[in-house]
Amino acid sequence: MSFEIERKFLVTGDSWRHAIIDSDVIRDGVVSEHNGAKVRVRLGQRAAWLTVKTDRAGPSRLEYEYEIPRADAEDMLVHICDDKIFEKTRYQVFHGGNTWQVDVYDGRLSGIVLAEIELQSENQAFEIPEWVGQEVTYHPHFHKRHIGRLCHDAGRPLTVAELLDGRAEGGVASDAARLAG
After folding, report:
1. Distances, alpha carbon 158 to alpha carbons 31, 166, 171, in Å
2. What does DSSP assign to residue 142?
3. Residue 138 — very low, low, confident or very high, per pLDDT cuts 50/70/90?
4. pTM for the whole structure
5. E strand spans, 44-131
6. Is 166 left (phi over 0), alpha (psi -120 to 50) or beta?
7. Continuous segment of H or E residues that includes residue 164
8. What DSSP designation does 57 have?
9. 60, exposed or middle or buried, with CB in 10 Å at 0-12, 13-18, 19+?
10. C-alpha to C-alpha distances, 77 to 31, 48, 67, 132, nearest whole angstrom
11. Burial class (CB in 10 A: 0-12, 13-18, 19+), 131
12. 37 by DSSP, 3-state: which?
């Protein structure tokens, strides 16, 4: 068992690209969700993992991660995850003595770019780069499963502005009410 302590932020520009130290193209699939917890399969270019995460308590949650055979991950993505697959390129970016992860999403989350930093403690100090914008760690619209549901319901990728101000949820609900009525 290990704790994952991470903070998540919007990315405001491309100046982070000069500090890339590694990257990986990743497909994440949601295997199961229950009471805020989730089981996820992740397939990268070099490895595959099965991860179990509890619901967040602030920036922290329990995380159990196991490397699995690539073929098993492919099978799970195809046979279990249905439309709950998220595609992204994850860049490792060095700044201020820390490695940040910048996720540039493709597919139905296209246009979303988020930066995460994993910490050793919730009170750990860190330098925020100039390319990091608003913190969205606690913003429910920026949980991947929520973004995915909103984009699926809208039938298109959503903008960061729509996610921030709730227009996506209101628009989807309004469209559904209009179609039902």
Report:
1. 23, 11, 11
2. G
3. confident
4. 0.84
5. 48-53, 60-68, 85-95, 98-105, 113-118
6. left
7. helix 160-165
8. B
9. middle
10. 8, 11, 15, 31
11. buried
12. strand
For residue 109, give the nearest of 83, 134, 137, 91 by alpha carbon: 83
pLDDT tens sequence across 89-120: 999 999 999 999 999 999 878 888 999 999 99
d(CA 90, CA 75) in angstroms, rounded, equals 22
CB atoms < 10 A from the CB of 14, how many?
9
* First vs last C-alpha separation in the chain: 49
Q: How far is CA 139 from the centre of its chain?
A: 12
Q: From the CB of residue 162, how many other CB atoms can be counted at a distance below 10 Å?
A: 19
Query: What torsion do the CA atoms of 153, 158, 163, 167 make, to the nearest 10 degrees?
Result: -70
Fold type of domain 2-180: Hypothetical Protein Pfu-838710-001 (2.40.320)
Please list, in sequence order, all residues whose beta carbon lies within 8 angstroms of the beta carbon of residue 93, skipping any fewer than 6 positions away. 16, 19, 20, 21, 99, 100, 101, 102, 115, 129
- Give the chain's mean pLDDT: 85
Cα four-point dihedral sign 102, 132, 158, 146: positive
Host H or E run for residue 23:
strand 20-34
Residue 98: how many other CB atoms lie within 10 Å = 14
